[in-house]
């Protein structure tokens, strides 16, 4: 049995090239995956999607505008409503109309939720089916 001992340092030299074989293997696997999945993604059921429309909401005069300021005061079409009984009486009268008007609630950002919740509950108890919240539209960039 023999052993070769070399005195030169040729085996200890640093190899300065990058082994690209694993990179090529990964790229080929990704290429195959994409070639398989692209036809599946393209073949879908033909559906005509609706186009987006951003039309401003037209306020009808028969709609009820309820505003709640930051102190919790309720306003019916800009007229102050002093108590919950008056609000309930007016909402019940509006609920009898056919078709029923919509109730649009405008709440101040500083309003406690309890005040708005009382208005929502009164509207529901009166029997009005359509309640909407009015907000400020977002600013387009």
Commentary on this structure:
This protein has a 5-stranded mixed sheet. The longest helix is centred in the first third of the chain and has 22 residues, at 21-42. It has a domain at 64-133: 2-Layer Sandwich (Nucleotidyltransferase, domain 5), CATH 3.30.420.270. The protein is an alpha/beta fold and 141 residues long. The protein is elongated. The protein has helices at 21-42, 84-95, 113-126; strands spanning 64-68, 74-76, 79-81, 103-107, 131-133. The N and C termini lie far apart (82 Å). α2 runs parallel beside α3.
The share of residues in helices is 25-40%
Radius of gyration: 36 Å
Distance between the termini: 82 Å
* Average pLDDT metric: 82
Major β-sheet profile: 5 strands, mixed
* CATH C-level label of the domain at 64-133: Alpha Beta
SSE string = HEEEHEHE
- The number of E-state strands comes to 5
What overall geometry do the principal axes of the alpha carbons give?
A: elongated
CATH topology of the domain at 64-133: Nucleotidyltransferase, domain 5
Proportion of residues in β-strands: 5-15%
Gross CATH architecture of the domain at 64-133: 2-Layer Sandwich
User: Structural class, from helix and strand content?
Assistant: alpha/beta
Low-confidence stretches: none
Count every helix, treating DSSP H or I runs of 4 or more residues as helices.
3
Strands side by side in the biggest sheet: 3-2-1-4-5
Subcellular location: Cell inner membrane; Cell membrane
Keywords: Cell inner membrane, Cell membrane, Membrane, Protein transport, Transmembrane, Transmembrane helix, Transport
Membrane topology: Single-pass type II membrane protein
Family: Belongs to the ExbD/TolR family.
């Amino acid at each position: 049995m023999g052993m070769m001992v070399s005195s030169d340092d040729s085996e200890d030299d640093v190899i300065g090239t990058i082994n690209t074989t694993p990179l090529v293997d990964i790229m080929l696997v990704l290429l195959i995956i994409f070639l398989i999945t692209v036809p599946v993604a393209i073949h879908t059921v033909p559906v005509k999607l609706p186009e987006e429309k951003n039309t401003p909401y037209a306020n009808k005069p028969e709609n009820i505008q309820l505003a709640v300021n930051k102190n919790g005061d309720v306003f019916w079409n800009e007229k102050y409503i002093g108590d919950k009984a008056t609000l309930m009486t007016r909402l019940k009268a509006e609920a009898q109309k056919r078709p029923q008007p919509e109730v649009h609630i405008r709440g101040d950002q500083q309003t406690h939720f309890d005040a708005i919740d009382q208005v929502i509950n009164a509207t529901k108890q009166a029997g009005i089916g359509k309640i909407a919240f009015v907000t400020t539209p977002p600013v387009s960039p």
